[in-house]
Amino acid sequence: MNLVITGLGTVSPAGTGTHDYWAALVEGRSLIAPLSDFDTDGFPVRLGGRVRGFDPLDHLDGRYVVQTDAFTWFAMVAAEEALEDSGFDVTADPYATGVLICSGAGGAEFGQRELTALYGSGPSHVGPYQSIAWFYAASTGQVSIRNQLKGMCGVLVTDEPGMLDALGQAEQALRRGGSAMLVGASESAIGAPYSLACQAVSGTLTDGDDPESVYLPFTERTVGYVPAEGAAAALVEDQELARARGARVRAVVAGQASTFGSVGGHDPGGEGLLHAALGAMRRAGVTPDEVDVVFADALGMPKADADEAAALRQLFPGGVAVTAPKTGFGRAHAGAGALDVAAAVLSLEHQVIPPTPRVPDPPAGLDLVVRVARPARLRTALVLSRGMGGGNSAVVLTSPHHV
Amino acid sequence: MAQEKITLEELVELISTSAGVRTDAETAAARTFEDLGVDSLGVLGIVAEIERRVGRKLGSEAELSPSPTALTAFVNDDSPALVEGV
């Protein structure tokens, strides 16, 4: 693969922008708080990682605020940061840049509001923007329109691995002749009861109400995860073209692979995740001893954690540093993989492995980075992701200074 | 009892709440919806809200009003003559 990330943007429970995101990660800050937007009575979840203090009018034209769901706001803001960060001139050839932004729940919060109006007041009370706002492709569409990006556009409707898959898709899009792809994933849907009701059927959410003791993957105390929201976006370019224009390359997308483990659950047994990792490493041409850090999926369910730990031990008999910074805020569904990719890029840049917040000790046989960030010589990072329904994906990112 | 007419000031408020575009009466009076940045879905939402306020259906002709002035004229008088030239 000859793909590089030249721009990065995030909207996370730590705030807007990669600067605040990285600061929270290094600190191992816990951003989990009560879901206070509605009465969670009857829902098997009390806590989550919301993007707080985000006023869309601080970032977006009022039209977008009225017309779109929060998942699109997050995507647009993250995309804006990534584009600006890249310094890439998209206007030179609008048809050379495409957009691919993943979504798991679409505009569920917006949709719920309009459906409430439908059943409460009648069809004439449903606003016309319902026709576009709830849709999974709404974020891709708005980012494309706003920035006049007219290359290949699409949406992957996925759970957590979306961004990793999107990086793989971007490679294909560039091979067909594009010069850049704006890829990302965004999720907002934890402020709406409807969306949480859909997530509840997974049986993997925890209803714990103590922010300090929920979602502790790889520990004996874990009984599930808390949901989160957020987005990350990256501008990816062909390596040669990026270097030719003198771009600051933030990371090399060295290899990516996806597998489908099995229907239902999160890859029961861990075989799918194992093979996604093997495929990504093979495509990247890296051996296990060349991988310096793994950003684990860290589902927070005892069996799934044991499966992942077993896969990691099999992949890395000589051991490897493992971290799961998402423990600090929860799993943002489609946004989760994207935020992990962003964390891995920042980690390679800073030569620091952020810790796994609140997990006090590493489990036996796994070098989980806990308590404090660990400075390390980092050339290669492996990001792992499992989604509800059996999809898995892995991506190998390398530091541009060591290619 | 529903109101019968709408003012331009009310329409300015609806342009903000239904379409997300902030403007004022003077600007709204001089421009088309397109100039203001209100798209066709925005006009649909504005018309639906006016229909609720005036308590009657305005029909698709209202949704095709090119400008705030044309739309208020249509709602208040239903007189095509007043719409011309805006």
What is the secondary structure topology, with strand pairs?
The complex is a heterodimer of chains A (403) and B (86).
Chain A lengths: L2 E10 L2 E2 L1 H10 L5 E2 L12 E2 L13 H6 L2 H17 L10 E6 L5 H14 L8 H4 L4 H10 L5 E2 L7 H14 L4 E8 L5 H8 L29 E9 H6 L6 E10 L10 H14 L8 E3 L6 H14 L5 E3 L10 H17 L1 E2 L13 E2 L5 E2 L4 E7 L4 E8 L5
Parallel strand pairs in A: 5-6, 5-7, 10-11, 10-15, 11-13
Antiparallel strand pairs in A: 1-2, 1-8, 1-9, 3-4, 7-8, 9-16, 12-14, 15-16
Chain B lengths: L7 H12 L5 H6 L2 H4 L3 H15 L4 H5 L4 H10 L2 H4 L3
Percent in strands of chain A: 15-25%
Tell me, briefly, the overall form of chain A: globular
Shape of chain B: globular
Protein chain pair with the most extensive contact, residues per chain? A-B, 14 and 16 residues
Structural class of chain B: mainly alpha
What letter string, H or E per element, gives the SSE order of chain A?
A: EEHEEHHEHHHEHEHEHEHEHEHEEEEE
Q: Return the average pLDDT of chain A rounded to an integer.
A: 94
Low-confidence stretches of chain A: none
What string gives the helices and strands of chain B in order? HHHHHHH
**What is the end-to-end distance of chain B?**
31 Å
Concise overview:
The complex is a heterodimer of chains A (403) and B (86). Chain A is α/β, with parallel strands linked by helices and 403 residues long.
